[in-house]
């Protein structure tokens, strides 16, 4: 857990408000779709038979001779599921430069940071990791030590395989916030369909698209690229094809951004060279992640 310490220190005081009102749930910090007579005042309604007389605005009654009830936005908890893609492609790059880790290393750090922010708001938070040997699932909890437990679970997972993410997303409840950390190189189409359906049903979906710096700017020269999820699939990236690759990859990222947002989800691209705490703040605030490298300014 000590490896995440500086990041967690940098995130103290950060809160993660829901992008829209949430459905019926236990009392918490997020604005709810439910109306009540406690909490933050929003509007008046004429008194109806059966209303609690204590909700009457007696001063307004004295002025207008009409009985009105004060209505308020209720506040609710929001269970948060953090889904982490641990397929073989997330292990890229296998060897790192400048001390920067793989896509999975960045995804783990951002997942822990998001878990800490959600937990600090007293929201239940859990994790679901899809990897080569199956699925590891820890249901949302609010108890003390939850963030440390989730960090240990994530650190105990090794990347591998190409298991689909969509069936696991579909298994999650719709009265929750669901955050998917992935490189979008697997079953993205199926995931988008699930995200759209869950969003219509009330879920708050966030896609965190993790991209390696080496994918954005491959080193010059000719390279042999092997697909880690399909045995025997190889491609030669020639020196004169580098510009075409960069253009194609930029188009792919733009397409993912547009499609996730069209599905009603939040979308944040996070590069492996960005400080995890800054990436977490970008996801929470719904803004573009900064491009400042990890070692900048040191």
Task: Describe the protein in words.
It is elongated and about 85 Å long. With 298 residues, it is of the alpha/beta class. It contains nine helices and eleven strands. The strands form three sheets. Strands 6-5-4-7-8-11 form a six-stranded mixed β-sheet, with helices on both faces. Strands 1-3-2 form a three-stranded antiparallel β-sheet, covered by helices on one side. The chain has a two-stranded antiparallel ribbon with strand order 9-10. β7, α6 (188-200) and β8 (204-211) form a beta-alpha-beta unit. It has two domains: 2-18 and 78-285, von Willebrand factor, type A domain (Rossmann fold, 3-Layer(aba) Sandwich), CATH 3.40.50.410; 27-76, no CATH class.
In short:
The protein has 298 residues and is an alpha/beta fold. 32% of the residues lie in helices and 26% in strands.
Tags for this model:
298 residues; alpha/beta; Rossmann fold; six-stranded mixed sheet; three-stranded antiparallel sheet; 9 helices; 32% helix; elongated; disordered C terminus
Largest sheet: 6 strands, mixed
Termini separation (Å)? 23 Å
Task: Summarize model confidence as the mean pLDDT.
Answer: 83
User: pLDDT under 50 segments (min length 5)?
Assistant: 24-39, 292-298
Derived structural class: alpha/beta
> Which architecture of the largest domain would the CATH scheme give at its second level?
3-Layer(aba) Sandwich
Q: What's the β-strand tally?
A: 11
Shape, per Cα inertia axes: elongated
């Amino acid at each position: 857990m000590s490896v995440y310490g500086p990041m967690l220190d940098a995130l103290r005081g950060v809160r993660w408000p829901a992008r829209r009102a949430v459905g019926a749930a236990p009392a918490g910090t997020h604005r709810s779709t439910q109306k009540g007579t406690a909490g933050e005042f929003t509007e008046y309604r004429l008194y109806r038979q059966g209303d609690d007389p204590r909700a009457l605005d007696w001063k307004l009654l004295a002025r207008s001779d009409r009985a009105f009830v004060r209505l308020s936005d209720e506040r609710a908890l929001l269970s948060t599921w953090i889904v982490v893609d641990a397929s073989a492609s997330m292990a890229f790059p296998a060897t790192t430069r400048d001390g920067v880790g793989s896509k999975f290393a960045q995804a783990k750090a951002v997942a822990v940071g998001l878990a800490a922010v959600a937990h600090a708001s007293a929201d239940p938070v859990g994790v679901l990791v899809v990897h080569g040997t199956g699925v590891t699932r820890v249901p949302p909890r609010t108890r003390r030590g939850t963030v440390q437990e989730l960090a240990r679970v994530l650190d105990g997972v090794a990347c591998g395989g190409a298991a689909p993410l969509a069936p696991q997303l579909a298994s999650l409840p719709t009265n929750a916030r669901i955050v998917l950390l992935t490189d979008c190189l697997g079953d993205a189409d199926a995931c988008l369909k699930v995200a759209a359906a869950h969003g219509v049903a009330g879920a708050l979906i966030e896609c965190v698209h993790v991209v390696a710096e080496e994918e954005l700017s491959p080193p010059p020269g000719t390279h042999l690229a092997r697909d880690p999820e399909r045995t025997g699939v190889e491609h030669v990236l020639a020196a004169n094809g580098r510009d075409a690759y960069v253009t194609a990859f930029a188009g792919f990222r733009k397409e993912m951004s547009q499609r996730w947002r069209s599905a009603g989800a939040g979308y944040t691209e996070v590069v492996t060279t960005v400080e995890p705490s800054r990436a977490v703040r970008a996801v929470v605030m719904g803004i573009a992640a900064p491009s400042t490298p990890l070692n900048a300014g040191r």
